[in-house]
Each structure stands twice: as C-alpha cells, then as structure tokens.
Amino acid sequence: MTSQAPARERHYLVLPQLGLAYCRVPKAANSSVRYLLARRFGFKAPEAEPNLLPNKDRFWTGQPPGVAHCLTAADFALLQAGADRPWCFSIVRNPVSRLYSAWNNKVLERRPDRPLPARFREMGVTPGMDFAAFVDRVAETVDDNSNIHIRSQSSILTLDGRVLPDFVGRVETIVPDWNHIRYEVRVRLGRRIPPLWPRNVRIRAQPDIAADLPRPVLAKIIDRYHDDFTRFYPHELRRLA
C-alpha cells in the first residue's frame, strides 16, 4: 500500500515484513524510536541520499517497496481492517512540556542562519519570540494549519474519534511503557527489540513547567490541547483545573 499524501501527513510507519507499525508523534521520543527501529532491523538510508538519518521522513519513504510504508491515518485504518493487520504502537507527551520543547528547540535555539519552517512563519511565529507569544500563535491556529511539532497528538493518533494504535505509551512513564512494547512485540511477532536509547535528552519528561506558567498562558494551552488531555492525560487535566 502506498500513499500520495505529503510526507507530513503520513504519520504511520508500517514495516510489513515485521508485522509492526509505529505512529510518530514529533517531540515525544520520535527520533529515538526511529533510530532504534533502523538500528535493530538493519534499515539503511536510500541510495539516492546515503547520508540521511532515520529521524528524517525521507529515510523511510525512500525504502524499497514492501519494506516500509508511510501512511495517513485513513490509509492505515484500511490496512487495519485487512488480514495483514500490523500491531501498532505510539508514544505521547504531556501537552505542556511537548509545546514548551517545540518552542525551545524550534524557535528559541534556532540558528540565525536557518529560517523558521514555513508553517511556523505562516502562523506568525518569529525567531526568538517568548513562550507566551508563541502560545498565542499556537492557540489561534487549527491543527490543519499547524506545524507538525505543535499539532495536537489526538489529530495524529485518531480517526473518526477512534485511537488507531493498539498501545499508546507516555514519555513520562517511558521505561515501563517501552518494556510493555517490547513484551508485545516479542509475544505477538516473535521479535526482540532493545531498551529505548535516549538519544536526545529532550525526550525525557521535563520538570513541572506548568507550575511556572502564568495562569492565562496555561489556560490557552489547556484549551488548545483539551482533547489530548482528556484522552491521554486526564489526571493532568484534573490537577491543572
């Protein structure tokens, strides 16, 4: 199965020969997971771009036919309904720390000689803008017009109100959740995967950023990502309310 949709909309990485699928959520251990899959199962960069790293979409879209597919949620749902249904997992992150990480990494730390991604520019984001101003721009932008790093996790993981992955772990509980993923892959697929190597320290759960945010800023984040909170972090929603 192939998809003609833009790579930014193809969140589901399907490895048909392994019977495994992973739904990527940027800023939620995504790079570490893709590096691990490439290393464990011997995936190489496409011949046309031999220096591509596994955290890049083109690394996976450039794999030979039948080796890896990158699908939209709609295409993946069709695949789930078939006889060759892969087992799918994903990882999410507290919406507050995920948004803060996206701002810190993509806006605050960005080198002056590297322009912001087009979607950020269209949102009105400017280099070096403070977090409160960044939250204003995010709050005013719907998912369809958002940069992938700040799109809601629910918009990536659901279709018609249904969560598509079979298991959704959390960055905040990554060790036991990854051990569960390892267990499922071993029992269901007869494959062994190693512990997750935290290649980038940003995948770790950050300190309680919410406690230091002005209440109006936090309220905008909760409103913008309300579905993420209710689906994946209801305990945090109750705590922050």
From TrEMBL:
Keyword Disulfide bond attributed: no
Membrane topology: Single-pass type II membrane protein
InterPro entries membership: Carb_sulfotrans_8-10, Sulfotransferase
Keyword Flavoprotein attributed: no
Record keywords, A-Z: Glycoprotein, Golgi apparatus, Membrane, Transferase, Transmembrane, Transmembrane helix
Subcellular location: Golgi apparatus membrane
Major localization listed first in the record, in broad terms: Golgi
Protein name: Sulfotransferase family 2 domain-containing protein
